[in-house]
Write a structure and sequence with these properties.
By secondary structure, the protein is an all-alpha fold. It has one domain (about 10-110). About 75% of the residues lie in helices and about 0% in strands. The protein contains five helices and no strands. It has helices spanning about 10-40, 45-50, 55, 60-80, 85-110. It starts with 11 loop residues before the first helix and ends with a helix.
Length: about 110
């Protein structure tokens, strides 16, 4: 079956890529929630990204966007790592799309 990768897949490269994407999506969720709740960017992030003053004044907007985006990426990866029925996979895909649309809406509608 083409395009379907599970943890039982004999090719360890695909399994490793899936697991790395799950870990990265969880890191994005945690970082986004931290920024949204504390309303402060990590100092390393400000230095590396070279955020302007107007961008630094919007931590809730950017943190919420990152948290929703990371959640969407995580939900999208679940069916490839866990045995999920076809209907469950479709529901998770719809949820991932809903989270993605919500993230974009959050970013564009939440302005000061």
């Amino acid at each position: 079956m083409i395009g379907r990768v599970t943890v039982d897949d004999p090719d360890p490269v695909w399994v490793a890529l899936r697991l790395v994407s799950v870990v990265l999506s969880l890191v994005v969720v945690v970082l986004g929630v931290r920024v949204a709740v504390t309303r402060r960017f990590p100092t390393v992030w400000v230095r590396v990204a070279r955020l302007t003053e107007s961008q630094r004044s919007e931590p809730l907007r950017r943190g919420g966007f990152l948290a929703l985006l990371g959640a969407s990426l995580f939900v999208q990866q679940v069916p490839s790592l866990v045995a999920v029925p076809v209907v469950g996979g479709r529901v998770l895909f719809a949820l991932a799309l809903l989270l993605l649309v919500t993230a974009v809406g959050w970013f564009f509608l939440l302005r000061r």
